[in-house]
Amino acid sequence: MTTVASGNHDGGVVVREACREDLLSVYRIEKTAFEQPWPYAAFERLLSAPAFLVAERDTDRPPVDPAAEQYADGSGIVGYVVGDVTPNHGRDIGHIKDIAVRPDAQGSGLGRRLLRRGLHRLAAAGASVVKLEVRASNTRAQRLYDSEGFEPVRTEPRYYGDGEAAYVMALELGDWIRGERG
Do 144 and 176 contact (CB within 8 A), yes or no? Predict the structure, then answer.
């Protein structure tokens, strides 16, 4: 297990590579965060992805929200990001496939930290552009992605199982790094 880069330990939370022991906690967050969660097996398949990172809170520190016990599983995992890279004739494409933060840890900037660490990992793995999909109704996530430089590319009608559309957004990693966002 390695931490990702300098500045990964903040507020009692460290961002590090995911390991097999984290998968159940990741899956529990997934089920809490999304109406149509990924299956556990999807996380197993992506465990070696270059940007599968978890945010882990020091379990000796009290939770930010006293009601957090309903989310806690004792592991300290409070969020994750999953991203991989697909070769594309010298212009490899990174893909942020999933990102979530446990409800009691939301609003603390942790989603942004995970996104940024994931983008750095995808750049290190050779991606020159990164894409993601976001629900048309998820304006909070759209604002985060927009603030990091993602731009809408197209709309995928009925992308999700419930019929909701997705916006496909993309980011030029070189521009993002030069803009000192990360």
Answer: no
- Reduced to 3 states (helix: H, G, I; strand: E, B; else coil), residue 20 is helix
pTM for the full predicted model:
0.87
- Is 80 catalytic? The answer is no
- pLDDT tens by residue, 98-130: 999 999 999 999 999 999 999 999 999 999 999
Q: Can you name the residues that pair with 92 across neighbouring β-strands?
A: 127
Q: Which residues contact 6 (CB under 8 A, 6 or more apart)?
A: none
Q: Which candidate in 133, 156, 164, 172 is catalytic?
A: 133
8 Å CB contact between 13 and 110: yes
Strands 9-10 and 13-17: antiparallel
**Residue 148: active-site member:** no
Quick check: 107 and 74 in contact, CB under 8 A? no
